[in-house]
Design a protein that fits this description.
The chain is an alpha+beta fold. It is built from ten helices and 37 strands. A hairpin with a 4-residue loop joins strand 22 and strand 23. It is globular and about 95 Å long.
Length: 638
């Protein structure tokens, strides 16, 4: 028996030892239970995160490098949880350390994967990701991850965010600046959170420390402003360094940023002979310089497929225009330089332009690779400057997408630059629907037309063409019926979805089944089945960003034949506030054929960024709209 117990002991001990390692200690478990009551919707918490930035001088290369060290302590406050912890890097950086410890500070030996980062928005990228899987089998389990990332050139270390994907109970960011380096740290939104800053000196180093507590998670939601508009963060700009008695400039002024950009485009060898014949063909019958410019701009839009590249220096340097022309695809830089070069080949005055879209909060008040994320083309013609963005397929010459309208742009001047804001768009963005229906005891049927104008038209065309040809008829029916599954919509085969111009009209026929219900000889008619569920912000965490300011108008006329009479009409609605203007009107008039019911709904989206503090007003507004349009028209037989 003693021998048997010994065997069982040998077998059981490793299992018990494993169980002990997996069990949380009492203090962590108590803490986890307390936090789970406070943050009911969260499963994992960062109890402490420490970020430190250090700088190194590479005298041989005349470059300043940087090291970003991060230690993150996780606590599982919910049930079993598994996550991947990633560190993203590229050809300008490397992950040189990646370790994981358990709650006893014992090193674990997880598998560290290293592979290219897959992103559906990127055609090609040099982004790589090192990651490991972290298992938290029980509430109260703690794990700590430490990483170190080295940047060969400090210009590529741009921004550091205080917030993370998970709530942070306590965090610090420490920036250690040696006395030979001049660094500017630009701070964003720190005053809106509990973030303290201290500055100290130690052994010739200037040490800036940011300390913070209880930061909410960063939430990934559609239609959100870019993170630089919302979350507390720092943008680091290394301006210059000194060695001996010499001082060397890095990014001290905006001109330094421009000169670096200009050097990159100066290395691009352009061979316009490759597309000279195509330029001549495109512009052969043009009667004016503007017509030439329009034809070239539209040709690039229609024939060059936009793809996104992120590949080291190629993330900032355009591909040669002849290569873009021959391959028929390119990123924003490739499409911009091809547009510019083809315009120049046609004898027009064109330049490249760097710009940050509205996803970024920054302008060119300081020099950093963080301040822009896009490249377009500028054309000087008739004493006017036009901005041309060929990535905006279906956009009209001389109009500007919301994402660049009003944004500051850096225009190349062959060795110097000009800063100018892209004009705000004056074109009305509108979606207008006009439907004429005939009342029947079982359904409504008739004809209609929807007209898209301005950026509404551009959105419609791009959305429709994101689907295959075999799917587009169903997509059209869904759009035109506002996702009403009881409506049958037919669009004729002669409809051209590629039409140019500022307006596009879609004519259709419609049969609305189940829109008329009958009870004891009384008919109840649903005239508008729109639900606006997608505009309910009750559960939303981030501000809501309306894609663009837009007016949406719906006009429906119902012919009620003789033999029937309208006995009850819904109440109208008028709402005006800082976010939207809404009107809903119902009218009934006698005509020779019977009655004519007219319905008009107008929604004018006046504000793009709907802040969280405005969500109650927004939700109340659209709840009133829903209640109004859900009212029924009541019809009886005479």
């Amino acid at each position: 028996m003693k021998k048997l117990f010994l065997i069982l002991g040998i077998i059981i001990l490793p299992i018990v030892g494993f169980a002990q390692r997996a069990l949380p200690n009492e203090e962590d478990l108590v803490n986890a239970k307390s936090l789970s009551k406070r943050y009911e919707d969260e499963r994992l918490i960062i109890t402490d995160i420490a970020i430190e930035v250090n700088f190194q001088l590479n005298r041989a290369k005349g470059m300043v490098g940087a090291t970003l060290s991060t230690k993150t302590d996780f606590l599982n406050i919910g049930s079993a949880f598994r996550m991947k912890y990633p560190v993203i890097y590229d050809s300008e950086s490397d992950v040189v350390a990646f370790t994981v410890r358990d709650h006893r500070s014992k090193f674990l030996t997880p598998t560290i994967q290293d592979e290219y980062l897959e992103n559906s928005d990127l055609f090609h990228s040099d982004y790589r990701v090192k990651y490991t899987t972290l298992d938290f089998p029980l509430q109260g389990i703690k794990k700590s991850v430490s990483t170190k990332q080295e940047y060969s050139d400090v210009k590529y270390l741009t921004s550091i965010y205080c917030s993370e994907e998970f709530r942070i109970l306590k965090g610090t960011i420490k920036i250690v600046i040696p006395d030979w380096l001049e660094v500017a740290v630009n701070e964003y939104y720190l005053d809106q959170f509990s973030i303290d800053k201290t500055v100290a000196n130690d052994k010739g180093n200037k040490i800036i420390t940011y300390s913070y507590k209880d930061l909410s998670p960063m939430y990934q939601e559609a239609h959100s402003p870019g993170p630089s508009h919302t979350y507390p963060h720092l943008v680091i700009v290394a301006k210059s360094y000194s060695t001996g008695n010499e001082k060397f400039t890095l990014f001290s002024e905006v001109d330094d940023l421009y000169q670096w950009y200009h050097g990159l485009i100066g290395n691009v060898v352009e061979e316009p002979k490759v597309y000279r014949e195509k330029v001549q063909e495109i512009t052969a019958n043009c009667q004016s310089p503007q017509e030439k410019a329009q034809k070239i701009f539209y040709w690039v839009q229609d024939n060059i497929r936009y793809v996104a590249f992120e590949d080291g220096i190629a993330g900032f340097q355009p591909t040669a225009p002849q290569e873009v022309f021959e391959k028929r695809y390119g990123d924003c830089k490739g499409m911009a330089i091809l547009t510019k070069s083809m315009l120049q080949e046609a004898g027009l005055d064109a330049s490249l332009v760097w710009i940050g879209t509205d996803r970024l909060v920054y302008d060119y008040s300081f020099p950093s690779l963080a301040v822009d994320n896009h490249m377009i083309c500028a054309l000087r013609m008739n004493e006017k400057l036009y901005f041309l963005d060929a990535t905006e397929k279906y956009s009209e010459f001389g109009t500007y997408a919301t994402r660049i309208a009003g944004r500051e742009a850096m225009i190349d001047g062959q060795g110097s630059y000009t800063l100018m804001r892209v004009p705000e768009n004056t074109t009305q963005n509108e979606e207008a629907t006009d439907i004429k229906l005939l009342f029947g005891p079982e359904s409504l049927k008739g004809i209609g037309a929807r007209t898209y104008q301005g950026e509404s038209k551009v959105w419609f065309q791009n959305y429709l063409h994101s689907f295959g040809r075999d799917e587009q008829s169903d997509v059209l029916a869904s759009l035109l019926s506002n996702n009403n599954t009881n409506a049958k919509v037919y669009v004729g085969n002669d409809f051209d979805s590629d039409v140019r111009g500022n307006q596009l009209q879609v004519p259709f026929t419609i049969l609305m089944e189940n829109s008329v219900s009958e009870f004891d000889g009384t008919y109840y008619v649903d005239i508008d089945t729109e639900t606006y569920k997608n505009l309910d912000l009750s559960e939303r965490k981030n501000d809501y960003l309306v894609p663009f300011k837009e007016k949406v108008v719906t006009e429906i006329t119902i012919e009620v034949p003789n033999g029937f009479e309208v006995v009850e009409m819904p109440e109208s609605l008028l709402i005006q506030n800082d976010l939207v203007d809404i009107t809903v009107d119902y009218n009934n008039q006698n005509v020779s054929s019977g009655n004519q019911v007219s319905y008009r709904k107008s929604i004018n989206f006046k504000k793009r960024n709907i802040e969280k503090k405005q969500f109650d007003l927004w939700n109340e507004t659209f709840q009133k709209l829903r209640e109004t349009i859900q009212q029924q028209i009541v019809i009886q037989k005479k």
